[in-house]
Specification:
By secondary structure, the protein is an alpha/beta fold. It is 46% helix and 14% strand. Helix 2 links the parallel strand 2 and strand 3. The chain is globular and about 60 Å long. Bound molecules: nicotinamide-adenine-dinucleotide. The site of nicotinamide-adenine-dinucleotide (NAD) has 29 residues, from helix 1, helix 4 and helix 7.
């Protein structure tokens, strides 16, 4: 399917690792120009994509929680690649603790997670929306999680922040629709990335020592039990959905929450 993204400019926050990196590669594979925004590793990730897909790329070191840094990242991106048409916010963190029950966490474990996962999204949206409104074109995709839909107990601040991603995308989708800008949320299920391992490792370590399996065996058994398609999702699975939603092939899709989760959460 021709997605018509050649030469479009796409920003992917958290684009140096895991799902964000696969999304950046997905845009580059379509011939889009890609800016990788990340706390760490943005420049080498962007350079590698540029070499692999022979498309202009830019790596920008940025903490998405800092308004000034986000404004600078946008200016640098637009100076080098041109006006930004697509933004994917994939940067996120977990608390690093096992939050089941929630009393395992202190209230002090919450603010950094909310700052990155919610306020990072808000800073990025505030930075890019005015240009999209002015040009009357643009898409945003926020990477949320099934954890934001089911009250996942593993890491409550993470789950709450992912619910906020979904809700904020709907607010923006309504506000921006009259300006020709679409906003959607994609919710991955279980994807083997550093973030997933941090959250699940804390969970695995709760198993009583005499019943404890290796992390890999424990995690695979969990996937077999809860995912109807009985497979981990791959970063590429999420990237394919995000790139499609960002393209004109999804021109009638806005304010939607799309799960890429092997059927874990089914809704209509
Ligand atoms: N892995 C999963 O199973 C899973 C499931 C559901 C949702 N998700 C979501 O997918 C997205 C990507 O997660 P991942 O698993 O690929 O994680 P990851 O840890 O591999 O990548 C996250 C990236 O975000 C960057 N980042 C963190 N804080 C930042 C900040 N303040 N400013 C800029 N960059 C920052 C990190 O440096 C890293 O490169 C996240 O939004 C996550 O919530 C992941």
């Amino acid at each position: 399917m021709e997605l018509g993204l050649r030469n479009h400019v796409a920003v992917v926050t958290g684009g140096a690792s895991g799902i964000g990196r696969a999304i950046a590669a997905g845009f580059a594979a379509e011939g889009a120009q890609v800016a990788v925004w990340d706390l760490a590793g943005a420049a080498p990730a962007a350079a590698e994509l540029g070499r692999e897909f022979a498309t202009p790329t830019r790596g920008v070191a940025v903490d998405v929680t800092q308004a000034g840094a986000v404004a600078q990242a946008l200016a640098e991106t637009q100076r080098n690649l041109g006006p930004v048409e697509h933004v994917v916010h994939a940067a996120a963190i977990g608390s690093g603790k096992f939050g089941f029950p929630f009393l395992n966490l202190a209230p002090a474990d919450w603010p950094r997670v909310l700052e990155v996962n919610i306020m990072g999204m808000v800073q990025v949206a505030h930075a890019v929306a005015p240009g999209m409104i002015e040009r009357r074109v643009g898409t945003m995709v926020f990477i949320a999680s099934v954890a934001g839909q089911i009250g996942s107990q593993t890491d409550p601040p993470y789950s709450a922040s992912k619910a906020a991603n979904i809700n904020y995308a709907q607010c923006l989708a309504k506000d921006l629709a009259p300006h020709g800008v679409r906003v959607n949320t994609v919710c991955p299920g279980m994807v083997q990335t550093p973030l997933n391992r941090d959250v699940w490792r804390a969970w695995h370590d709760q198993q009583p020592a005499d019943q404890r399996q290796t992390y890999e065996a424990w995690a695979q058994a969990k996937i077999d039990n809860v995912i109807p398609l009985r497979k981990w999702q791959q970063p590429q699975d999420v990237a394919d959905m995000v790139v499609f939603l960002s393209s004109a092939r999804a021109a009638q899709v806005t304010g939607q929450t799309i799960n890429v989760d092997g059927g874990f959460v089914m809704h209509w």
